[in-house]
Design a protein that fits this description.
- The complex is a heterodimer.
- Among the domains of chain A are: about 55 residues, no CATH class; about 70 residues.
- Chain A contains four helices and no strands.
- The radius of gyration of chain A is 56 Å and the shape is elongated.
- The N and C termini of chain A lie far apart (about 130 Å).
- Chain B is about 40% helix and about 20% strand.
- In chain B, strands 1, 2, 3, 4, 7, 15 and 16 form a seven-stranded mixed β-sheet that branches. In chain B, strands 9-8-20-19-18 form a five-stranded antiparallel β-sheet, sandwiched between helices. A two-stranded antiparallel ribbon of chain B has the order 5-6.
- Chain B is elongated and about 145 Å long.
- Classes of the chains: A mainly alpha, B alpha+beta.
Chain lengths: ~180, ~575
C-alpha cells in the first residue's frame, strides 16, 4: 500500500518537475519571476542557459523511510533471536544424535560383553568336559597309568633359605705398583 | 488520467472481492490451510506422545537395544580346590520342526538335519511325513550346533533356548554338589545349601530406561576345599571295594584336621546330577551326613582319650581283661573270646591293639557315668557338626537318666555301641586326636573367590573348642600307631610311613531293633603320626562274607587312598626308605 502511495507521489512529483521544466523552457529570458523561483534558477539560467536541462534532472533519490526506534529495536531482537534459535536447534540436534549414538554404542558394547561371557561359558564347559573325559580315559587299565605309590616317588625336602649372596670383594687389579717394573 | 487512476484504486480496495483470484481471498485460504495443517500436526503429535507414547518407547528401545533372548547364567559356577569346574550354567536348545513351513522338500530337510544332529534320516523323514507341525527333533542341543543350524537358514525349524546346570564331572561330586532340577530349582547338596550365594545379583542394564534386570555375571565362583584328583581316586577305590564285598553303601572321607577342611568325601552309591531324574531318591541325600551308624571299635580311641584326660588311667597302666562280662541278661565279650579267651592283665595300648571290649569296659568303669555322659555331650554328640551340607542328623545318645542308671549303657558305649553318630562326626572326633585336641568344624566350602582366586566371602564358623590336651592326644596317637604297626590295623600299614589307626566292626541293629547279622565295618587312619594332619576314614555298610571286618575291608581301602594322599600332599616318609 505504502509503496503504491509512494509511486503515486513520485509520479506527481515528476509531473510537477516537468511543468517546471516546461516553464523554464518557455520563458528562458524572463527575469521578473517570483522571488523564490528566481533565486532557485538564477545561476543556471544566467551561466549556461542552453544546458539548463541537466541540473534540473538532479533530484533526491527515494530513501527508505526512517523506522521508529522501537521498531528498530524489535527488528534487532528478531534477528538476534533468529541466530540464537538456529544455534539452539543445531545444538539440540547434535545432543540428540549424540545420545542416540551413545545408547547404540553402549547397547552394542553390552551385546559384545554378553557374547564374550557366553563364549567364556562355552569354553569353560568344553574344557571341563574334556578334562573329565581325559581323566576317565586315564582311569581305564588300558591307558597304562599306575596309581600313586610313595615308594616310586622321590620327596625332595625344600632347601633351607640361602643367605643372601655377600658381595665379593674383588681383588683390586688397578692397585698402584710400588715401583715401576721394567721388561 | 489522474482522476481515472484514483477512482480505479478506490474501486480495488474499498469493495469486497468478487473474484476467487482476489488476493485477500487467496490470503485467507492459504492462512486457513496452514492453520488446519498445524492443527492436524498437533493432533498427531498429541496422539503419538500421549496415547501411543509408552508403546512406541518400548518398540524403539527394542530396536535400539537388542536384549539377550536367553536369561543366561543365573547361578555362579562351583569349582574345586584347584579351580576345576564342578558345576556351571549352560544354554541348550530344543529343536522343533514344522514340516508345513518347510521351504525345501522333507527328504532334503531330513538329510540335512540328520547329518547335523547325527540322527537316522529315514526315521526323521517318517516323522516329518506323519505330522504337519510341532515335531520335537532334538533336545539338549549345544549352542555351537544350534548356531550351525541357524546359519543354514532353514524355514520351519524352531530353536528354543533354555538354561541348564551342567556338571562336567558327572558322578564324581554329586553327593557334595547336589543338583538343580529342570525347573532351575536347587534340590540337593551345596546347590541347595548355598543357593543365596550361588545366585547372581540382578542388576539394571547399563542402558537408559531399561526396564529389564539381568543377572550381573561377575567372575565370582564358589570354591570348595575338595580336591578333584583325590576325590576321583577315593571314589574309584571306594566303588571297587563296595563292588568286591557287595556292600550296601560306603564312604571314604579325608579331612585336614588342622582346620576341618574336607579334601575328599566319596560316597557310594552315587548318581549323575546331569541325569538326576534317573537316580534313586535315596541317593540324593549324602548318607555320610544324614545317616547315623554305631561306630564300634573306632570310638575306642576317643574313650581312651576321655579316660586319659580325666586322669583315670595313664598310658602305662595295665587293665585286667577276663574276656567276657555279664551285665544282667547282657553278655559282653571280646570278638576273639572263643579263640583266645581272656587275655589277663594287658596294657592300655594292647587293649586298642587287640580291640578288647572288656578292657575298654573296665577303663570306662572308672569314670562316673554322669561324668561320662557329660564328656559325650562335651564332644558334641547330640549337636550338629556344622558342615554345610543340608539334612545333617544329630547323634543319638540314650537319655541321661537311662545312661546314668543302667550300667550296661556305659559299658556298651565304652566299645562304641548303643549310640549312633554320623560318619562325619566320627571324623571330626578323630580330628581332635590329630590336631592336639581341638574340635574343628568340618567344612567343604572355602568361599566365593574372584577370577584371581582371592576370596571375597567366606562362611563364618565357630571357634574350635579344645576338648583334649596335647599330651593326651599324643599318647592316644602313639597307641593308634601300635594298632597299625602290630595290631588289627596292619592291613593299612604303608612302608616307611607312621600311621595311627583303629579298625571297627560294629553289629547293625536290624529292623526288629536287635543286633543281627548285618555289620558295618570301618577304619580311621591318622597320618603322619610325627606331624599329625590328615584323618582318613572308610565306612562300609553291610559288606558280605564272614571275613568282612574293619581290618579286611576298610583298612586296605584307607591304605590305598593314603598312598595317593601322601604323594599328592607331599608328605615325605617318616622313616628313611629301607
Amino acid at each position: 500500500m505504502g509503496f503504491a502511495v509512494r509511486a503515486d507521489r513520485n509520479k506527481s512529483n515528476s509531473v510537477e518537475s516537468s511543468q517546471k521544466r516546461n516553464l523554464v523552457l518557455l520563458h528562458p529570458t524572463k527575469k521578473n519571476l517570483s522571488s523564490a523561483g528566481a533565486e532557485l534558477f538564477e545561476a543556471p539560467v544566467q551561466a549556461i542557459p542552453v544546458k539548463v536541462a541537466t541540473p534540473a534532472n538532479v533530484r533526491q533519490l527515494p530513501t527508505a523511510p526512517r523506522l521508529p526506534l522501537g521498531l528498530k529495536l524489535l527488528v534487532g531482537v528478531q534477528q538476534g533471536s533468529t541466530v540464537i534459535t538456529g544455534g539452539l536447534v543445531a545444538t539440540a540436534l547434535v545432543i540428540y544424535s549424540w545420545t542416540v549414538y551413545l545408547d547404540q554404542t553402549v547397547a552394542r558394547s553390552f551385546d559384545r560383553l554378553e557374547a564374550l561371557k557366553a563364549s567364556i561359558q562355552q569354553v569353560t564347559t568344553a574344557n571341563a568336559t574334556l578334562k573329565n573325559s581325559m581323566a576317565e580315559q586315564a582311569e581305564s587299565p588300558a591307558a597304562g597309568f599306575k596309581p600313586f605309590d610313595p615308594e616310586r616317588v622321590i620327596f625332595v625336602a625344600p632347601a633351607p633359605a640361602r643367605p643372601s649372596v655377600e658381595l665379593l670383594v674383588e681383588p683390586d687389579l688397578q692397585a698402584p705398583m710400588p715401583h715401576p717394573l721394567g721388561y | 488520467m489522474v482522476t481515472q487512476s484514483s477512482s480505479s484504486e478506490h474501486h480495488q480496495f474499498g469493495r469486497r472481492p468478487r473474484h476467487l483470484s482476489s488476493p485477500r481471498f487467496r490470503l485467507v485460504t492459504v492462512w486457513t490451510g496452514m492453520i488446519l495443517v498445524m492443527l492436524g500436526l498437533s493432533a498427531r503429535l498429541g496422539r503419538l506422545q500421549i496415547t501411543m507414547g509408552e508403546e512406541l518407547k518400548i518398540q524403539a528401545q527394542q530396536q535400539r537395544q537388542n536384549f539377550p533372548q536367553v536369561p543366561r547364567a543365573s547361578r555362579r559356577p562351583i569349582i574345586d580346590r584347584q579351580g576345576n569346574v564342578l558345576a556351571v550354567d549352560r544354554v541348550v536348545y530344543t529343536i522343533y520342526a514344522h514340516p508345513m513351513l518347510f521351504n525345501r522338500s522333507p527328504q532334503e530337510m531330513a538329510e540335512v538335519l540328520g547329518g547335523v544332529l547325527g540322527q537316522p534320516q529315514n526315521a526323521l523323514l517318517q516323522r516329518f511325513q506323519e505330522q504337519e507341525t510341532g515335531i520335537q527333533v532334538a533336545v539338549d542341543v549345544s549352542e555351537e550346533l544350534t548356531a550351525r543350524i541357524r546359519n543354514m537358514r532353514l524355514d520351519g525349524l524352531e530353536l528354543l533356548p533354555s538354561q541348564q546346570r551342567f556338571y562336567p564331572q558327572q558322578t564324581l561330586m554329586s553327593q557334595l554338589v547336589g543338583y538343580v532340577n529342570l525347573e532351575g530349582q536347587p534340590q540337593a547338596g551345596l546347590e541347595y545349601a548355598f543357593q543365596q550365594q550361588l545366585l547372581y545379583e540382578l542388576d539394571e542394564l547399563p542402558l537408559p530406561n531399561a526396564r529389564e534386570q539381568l543377572p550381573n555375571r561377575d567372575g565370582l565362583r564358589l570354591q570348595l576345599t575338595v580336591d578333584s584328583r583325590l576325590q576321583r581316586i577315593a571314589q574309584r577305590n571306594l566303588a571297587a571295594t563296595v563292588r568286591q564285598f557287595g556292600a550296601k553303601r560306603g564312604a571314604l572321607i579325608v579331612m585336614d584336621s588342622r582346620n576341618g577342611a574336607i579334601l575328599s568325601l566319596a560316597a557310594a552309591p552315587t548318581y549323575d546330577p546331569n541325569r538326576y531324574y534317573e537316580a534313586d531318591v535315596e541317593q540324593f541325600k549324602n548318607w555320610v551326613i544324614s545317616d547315623l551308624y554305631e561306630p564300634g571299635s573306632t570310638f575306642k580311641p576317643i574313650n581312651v582319650a576321655i579316660a586319659l584326660e580325666a586322669g583315670l588311667i595313664s598310658p602305662n597302666d595295665y587293665i585286667y581283661d577276663e574276656g567276657r562280662l555279664q551285665y544282667d541278661q547282657w553278655t559282653i565279650q571280646n570278638v576273639d573270646y572263643n579263640q583266645v579267651g581272656g587275655r589277663g592283665s594287658i596294657s592300655v595300648t594292647d587293649i586298642l591293639r587287640h580291640s578288647s571290649n572288656v578292657g575298654m569296659v573296665h577303663i570306662m568303669e572308672r569314670l562316673k557315668r554322669s561324668d561320662y555322659y557329660d564328656w559325650l555331650e562335651k564332644l558334641g554328640l547330640g549337636q550338629l557338626t556344622g558342615i554345610e551340607l543340608p539334612a545333617e542328623t544329630i547323634a543319638q545318645l540314650k537319655s541321661r537318666s537311662q545312661f546314668v542308671n543302667s550300667p550296661v549303657e556305659a559299658a556298651t558305649t565304652a566299645f562304641g555301641q548303643g549310640f549312633s553318630l554320623s560318619p562325619i562326626q566320627q571324623v571330626q572326633l578323630h580330628s581332635a586326636l590329630a590336631n592336639g585336641g581341638k574340635l574343628v568344624t568340618p567344612h567343604i566350602v572355602r568361599g566365593l573367590v574372584d577370577q584371581d582366586g582371592n576370596p571375597t566371602w567366606e562362611p563364618t564358623r565357630p571357634e574350635a573348642r579344645t576338648v583334649f590336651s596335647k599330651a593326651t592326644t599324643q599318647a592316644v596317637l602313639n597307641m593308634m600307631e601300635d594298632v597299625v604297626e602290630t595290631g588289627s590295623g596292619q592291613t593299612a600299614r604303608i612302608p616307611n610311613y607312621r600311621m595311627g589307626g583303629k579298625t571297627g566292626t560294629a553289629q547293625k541293629v536290624n529292623q526288629y531293633g536287635e543286633y543281627g547279622d548285618g555289620r558295618i565295618v570301618s577304619f580311621v587312619g591318622i597320618v603322619p603320626v610325627e606331624n599329625p594332619r590328615y584323618v582318613v576314614m572308610a565306612v562300609l555298610d553291610e559288606p558280605l562274607g564272614k571275613e568282612s571286618y574293619g581290618s579286611t575291608v576298610a583298612a586296605p581301602l584307607v591304605k590305598s587312598l593314603v598312598e595317593s594322599l601322601v604323594v599328592m600332599a607331599g608328605v615325605p616318609p617318616s622313616r628313611p626308605p629301607e
